[in-house]
Amino acid sequence: MSGQDPAIGSPEQSGRERCDADIDARVSIGLLQIAYKNNLANIGVNLIAGLGVIAIIISYGGAIAEMVPWIAALTALTVIRAIATAIDLRCLHGEEPLSPKRLRWMIATYALGLSLGWVLWTALTYIAMQSDIVAVRFTALIVISALAAGATGILAPVLTIGRAYIFMMLLQGSLQLALSPERDIVLAILGIVFAIVMLVSHSNNHQVLRRSLRLQFENSALIGDLTDQRSKLEELNSSLEERVQRRTRELKRLSENDGLTGIYNRRGILDWVDSRYGAVEEGHAYLCVFIDLDRFKQINDGMDHAVGDRVLVEVANRLRVAAPKDAALCRWGGDEFVLLIELPEEVCHEAGAEFIEAVRPQVEDTMSIDGRELQVGFSAGMSISGPSPDAVRESIRSADLAMAEIKRRGRGGARYFSEELFAEQKRNFLIAQRLKHAVSYREFSLAFQPIVSARAAQVDSCEVLLRWSTPSIGPVGPDEFISIAEDTGDIVAIGEYVLDTACAAMTSGIISRAVPTVAVNVSLRQLVSQKFSSRVRSILDSHGMPASKLILEVTENIFEDRNREVVAWVLHELSDMGIAVHIDDFGTGYSSLSRLNEMPIAALKIDKSFVQNMSKQETAIIQGSVMIADRFNIETIAEGVETLEQARKLQAMGVTSLQGYFFGKPRPSFGAKEYSEAMSGLRLLHDSDISVFDAR
Q1: The model scores a pTM over 0.85
Q2: What's the burial of 467, exposed, middle or buried (CB within 10 Å: 0-12/13-18/19+)?
Q3: Is the dihedral angle over the CA atoms 504, 506, 509, 510 positive or is it negative?
Q4: Hey, which CATH number is domain 430-686, 3.30.1660.10, 3.40.1190.20, 3.20.20.450, 2.40.160.20?
Q5: pLDDT tens across 315-333, in order?
C-alpha cells in the first residue's frame, strides 16, 4: 500500500500555499505601485521644501551664488526622478507581468533617488547649520523633521527603504546639531528620540497598508474561489446543498458578530431577540443595559488605535465573563456595548443596579497592554422592556438616552430611563418647536455686560447676552436653549437677529458711546453657514457701524479638524474687514495651540469656572493661558469676576481685561448709569481717582 510523502503535503495544502504565495507577490507589486504613486508627491514636496529653505537662507543674507549648485542639483534630480517614476508607473500598471529582474531594478532606482535626495538635504542642512542666524538653522531642522514625519506615510509601502530614509534624515540633523558651532546636545538627543518614534509610526503604517492590500487580494481570491467552487458544485450536485448551507452559516455568523471582539454586533443582537420571541417565559422581561466607555477617545488619540482595539476586546471579554449565562452581549458601535438579560419582571430593576455594582470593578480593573497599565471607566443607562422585538428596540433607545444623560452630567454613573428623563426630552422638543418662531414673535431680548481693562481705567467693550421668555414655557436660560438651537439649525437665524439688534444698540445709544466696541457670540454653525461674512458686512452697513467696533466671540470647537479650512477662511475674511475675533470659554473644550497661529484670534476669554474657584490648579491654568496668549501676541479676558480680590489677582497675573458682576451685571441697556457702575469698580481696582468719562 503506497502512501503520500508527508514532505510533499496534500494537494489542498499545496494549493493554499500557492495562493498565499500569489497573494504575497500581488501585495509586493501593490506596495510598489503605491510607493511609485506616492513618489511623485515626495519629489514635489522635496523640491518645494528645498527651494523654500534656500529662499530663507538667501533672505537672511546667504550668497545666491553659493546656492546655485545645490539648486541645480536638486532641480536635475527632481526632473530625473519624475521621469523615471512616470516610466516605471506605466510599466507597473501595464498588462504584461514584470520580471523579478525588472522589479529589482525599479526598487534600486527608487532607493537611489531617495538616497541622492538625502545627500542633497544633508549638504543643505550642513550649510544652514553653519549660519549664525538661529532662524536659518532651525528652519532647516524643522523642514527635515517634517520631511521625515511625512515619509512615515508617503514611504509606508517600502519598509526597509523608508526606515533608512527616515532614520538617516533625522540622524544627520541630530549629528549636525551636536557637531555644529552652536551645538545643542539636548536637541540632538531629542532628534534621535523623534527618529525612533517616526520609525515606529512608519512601521505601523506599513503593516496597516500591507494588511489592507492583503485583505483586498484575499477577498478577490475568495470571490474567484467561490466562482470556481460554484462551477465544480454544479458537476457535483450531491454536495451542493451541504456546501451552501455551511457557507450560509459562516456568512450569517460574520454578519451577526463584531469582527473585533467576537461578540454580537447590532444586527446580531436584534436577530437574537427576534429568534427568542415567543420563547420568553410568561412574566419575564428584558433588562437592557447600555454601556459607553468614558473618555475612550483619549486612548485612541493619545496612544494608538491598535491599543484602543485591544482595550475594546478586553472590555468585551470582561463583560462576557460577568454577564449571566443566557444573556446577550453586543458591541453596539464604537465604544458602546448593549447587554440584554431575561429576568422575572419584578426583579429587573434591582438586578440592574446589582449587575452594574458587580461589573464596574471588573471592567475598571487595571489592564496591561504592551507593558502599559491602563484603566477605563464607563457610564451606563438601563431600561426594562417586554419581549417583543419592537419593545426591545425602544428599550435600547431609552437606555441610550439614560446613558447620555449620565455623560452630560459628568460620566461614571448609571441610571434607569425614567418619566422625568422623558419629560426632559419632551421639554427639549417643545423648546425646539418654539425656537422656530421666537424671532418672528419677538420673544428674544438682549442684555449688556461691560468688559473693562485691567491695565487702564477704561471700559473696553460690552458683551451681548441673549435672553428668552416664551408664553407657553416661560423664561428659558441660554444654557438650555442654545444647544438645542445648535442641534436644530435655528441658531443661524437667532444669531443673525442678535447681531443685527446688537449693532442697532451700538449706533442708537442703547450702549453708551463711550464704549468702543460690542462683543457678540457666534456659533460654529453660523460661521460655516453660507455667505456669513457677507451677511455680517450687510448688517454693519445697514446700521452705518464701522467693522472695527464689532467683536465676534467663538468657542474652541472652531479648532475641530472637520471644519478647519472653512472656519479659517471665514475668520480671515472677518479679520480683513476689521472685526476682532475672540475665543470664548477658553480652556473648557477642544484646544489646539498650534492652530492659534493659523487663525486671526485677537483675544482668549478665560472661562468663569477657573476664575470663581481660583484654586492652585485653576490659577495654574489661568497663568498658562496668559503665557500662551502672550507668546501669540493675543489679549486675555477673564470672565466671572465677582470680587475685588479676584480682579486684583487676575490683574497681577497679566490678564488684559476683566468681566463679571463686580463691574456690572447684564442690563437691558448700557447707558450713563451702567457706565458709571463699571468705572466705580475700575476705581477700586486701580486704587486711584478716576474721572468718569462722558457716557452720553
Answers
A1: no
A2: middle
A3: positive
A4: 3.20.20.450
A5: 999 999 999 988 999 999 9
